[in-house]
Amino acid sequence: MKIQKIHNLTVKVIASITIFVISLLQVPFETVAIESEEDRRREPTAGEYLELRAVEVKEEEGKNKQLIMELWGHNLQFKRIYSKISV
Q: Could you tell me if 51 and 24 lie in one domain?
């Protein structure tokens, strides 16, 4: 009988520790999502710019024209790369 009680107590303790650890793992992802827009925004310095180039115009008879464009970044310096994780 005592062995059964010890086993039940051990299972409860392990389950509690597991739930605690899982909740701790979720904290960093939630703090990233709370970050404000100003924290992610950055003003370009001299020589940093984006360029939008028209590469190709596709025309098909009886349909609208399609314009293919490319976005080029020049001399961009990143402080960090921001990625948002939502579950």
A: no
